């Protein structure tokens, strides 16, 4: 019998040499196999054959499993043919999770030697004895679904009609419980890409371009790239990935989407009509022309065909002599306290002469400044000064001066030309003045 058992184990085990399949990935296990028993009483003559066995198991975690086993057998004892049945529940602990995994197990069940006797106790007429068992075995994985199981267990039973005995089993287990939709060996509940066959190191996701970045994290899954570029190539090495680089063959600047800027004017060469000369983005990367050569570019020159000054927006200025003359005439323009009324023959004559000077000097513009004395509130004086400069402008425009040549400003009491302590001083501070800056 012993030689027969060894021969069977050898035949069944020889084809397989490859992880324990019943794990959290496939927690359920159904097993079929054969068993034989060996009575541990030298005074009893017995011959045992092989019989089928079935088992059901469930992986709990940390190497522990629970299960149940049922086996039947036929044997000869004391020259009498009889039947043997075992049924039990067990707790199993795998020592490792390698391809070859030994384990220990212990359980409790029944052993029936087929003696139809009637005894006192829980199992009165079945000839079955309550049995405590313990043993060792090992699992060998064939695939993630199939594994080979061999074990030997000592079964201890002292009820009448039973014997202490060894039970040897060998069989195949089918392990299941977790789906694997893409058949990549990684269960769906642990597979980040359950619909695409992938690699274990990438939680079941594929790496189509082999750049060690899984496709679900790779911005360029069909092109070999670097991790710092999110899996995309950077042909020109300018730290802008090719899929975002508007100039992938030329080293460029990140802020210009990977394109170069030879003249440093913040306009990429591909958009720059003057790539070797710094210019303005609004002028397609070219510098603005200065038609009149006055140092004020045409885009901000109010008089692009006439040389002027930067202070006057590129337009010609009135000469200092003309401005001085206008300000001498302006000394005649005084206002009564608290008013912006223009009145009196000297005032009207002075404004008419200013108009004539402007007609004779068509180039240049004037700023009309309004001022007040310190009488009254500061805010009211500021408003009054603005009204006074506006009144002078309106009078000159009424005489025929181009309004575009005149601008008004009010300074209130901020800029007195004399002391406000006397009536004469306050009268002089109620005035207008002219300047050329526009």
Key features of this structure:
438 residues, alpha+beta, Porin, 60s Ribosomal Protein L30, Chain: A, rod-shaped, disordered N terminus
Brief overview:
The chain is of the alpha+beta class and 438 residues long. It contains 5 helices and 12 strands.
Task: Characterise the protein shown here.
The chain is of the alpha+beta class and 438 residues long. Among the domains are: 2-176, Porin, CATH 2.40.160; 320-435, OmpA-like domain (60s Ribosomal Protein L30, Chain: A, 2-Layer Sandwich), CATH 3.30.1330. 16% of the residues lie in helices and 27% in strands. Strand 4 and strand 5 form a beta hairpin. The termini are far apart.
- What is the N-to-C order of secondary-structure elements (H for helix, E for strand)? HEEEEEEEEEHHEHEHE
CATH architecture classification of the domain at 2-176:
Beta Barrel
Helix content: 10-25%
Which whole number gives the mean pLDDT?
86
Unreliable stretches covering 5 or more consecutive residues = 1-20, 121-125
In percent terms, what proportion of residues is strand?
A: 25-35%
* Backbone shape: rod-shaped
CATH level-3 fold name of the domain at 2-176: Porin
Output the strand order for the largest sheet.
1-3-4-5-6-7-8-9
Annotation field: number of helices: 5
Question: How many strand units?
Answer: 12
Distance between the termini: 121 Å
What is the topological layout?
Layout lengths: L1 H12 L14 E12 L6 E3 L2 E11 L2 E14 L2 E15 L5 E13 L15 E14 L4 E11 L8 E12 L143 H11 L14 H16 L5 E5 L7 H22 L6 E5 L12 H7 L2 E4 L3
Parallel strand pairs: 10-11
Antiparallel strand pairs: 1-3, 1-9, 2-4, 3-4, 4-5, 5-6, 6-7, 7-8, 8-9, 10-12
